[in-house]
Amino acid sequence: RVNVSLLEGVVAEVKEPCSLPMLSVDMENKENGSVGVKNSMENGRPPDPADWAVMDVVNYFRTAGFEEQASAFQEQEIDGKSLLLMTRNDVLTGLQLKLGPALKIYEYHVKPLQTKHLKNNSS
Fold first, then answer.
1. Containing H/E element for 38?
2. Per-residue buried b or exposed e for 21-43, using 16+ beta carbons within 10 Å of the residue's own CB
3. To 5 degrees, how large is the angle CA 88–CA 79–CA 41?
4. Which of 21, 76, 94, 120 is the most exposed place for a label (fewest CB within 10 A)?
């Protein structure tokens, strides 16, 4: 026989909300009525790439599936500000990467990060 009051105590403990210091909740209602939750850190990186350290850039590309190529960003000391300044030519030739991965890195990652950064900081 299980002691029910003991189980209720455990369940009550589990139901207690966890407080995560890096998670800030923005309770403003969106147009569609949903509540937005803003994470002040995305996968351990600051949300704005301009604030990324070299290892944040490296980990971003590792997470994106470019394990082999990520080390080139570390060797060239590319931090977030440098990443946002990179041209297509920089990525294709300056990092000494194979052409295929370099094209994908620029088109699907560097360019969108630059566009998003400009959009978020042009208001």
1. strand 38-39
2. eeeeeeeeeeeeeeeeeeeeeee
3. 110
4. 21
For residue 38, pLDDT over 70 is answered with no
**The two structure tokens encoding residue 48:** 């704005």
Give the domains, in start order, of the chain with CATH numbers. Answer: 49-121 (1.10.150.50)
**Rounded Cα distance, 44 and 9, in Å:** 33
C-beta separation of 97 from 75 below 8 A: no
Q: What is the pLDDT of residues 52-87, one digit of tens each?
A: 999 999 999 999 999 999 999 999 999 999 999 999
pTM of the model: 0.67
Tokens of 97: 């990467």
Give the SS3 label for residue 23: strand
